[in-house]
Amino acid sequence: MRDLATALQVQFYHVVAVLMKHDIYKTAADNLDFSTASLVCTHYGVKPRRSN
C-alpha cells in the first residue's frame, strides 16, 4: 500500500481513508489486489493500469 501511496504522491493514511470509506480495512503493510488499488487510483483521478 505504501508503494501505491508513493506512486500517487499522497500519504499512505490517505489511501487507508479512501479504503475505509468503502468498508475495506487494510494496514500500511498489506498488499492490495488490482481491483482495490484501482478504486484508490480512480478516487485520485488516475487511470489504473497493470504493470508488467
Can you describe what's shown?
By secondary structure, this protein is mainly α. Helix content is 52%, strand content 0%. Helix 1 crosses helix 2. The radius of gyration is 10 Å and the shape is globular. The mean pLDDT is 92.
The end-to-end distance, rounded to whole angstroms, is 18 Å
Report the strand count: 0
Work out the helix count: 3
Q: What's the gyration radius in Å?
A: 10 Å
Q: What gross morphology would you assign? A: globular
Seen as an oligomer or otherwise, the chain set is single chain
What's the helix-strand series?
HHH
The description of the largest β-sheet is: none
Supply the number of structural domains: 1
What are the SSEs and their pairings?
Layout: H1 2-8, H2 12-21, H3 34-43
Which descriptors apply to this entry?
3 helices, single chain, 52 residues, globular, mainly alpha
Give a brief outline of the structure.
The protein is an all-alpha fold. 52% of the residues lie in helices and 0% in strands.
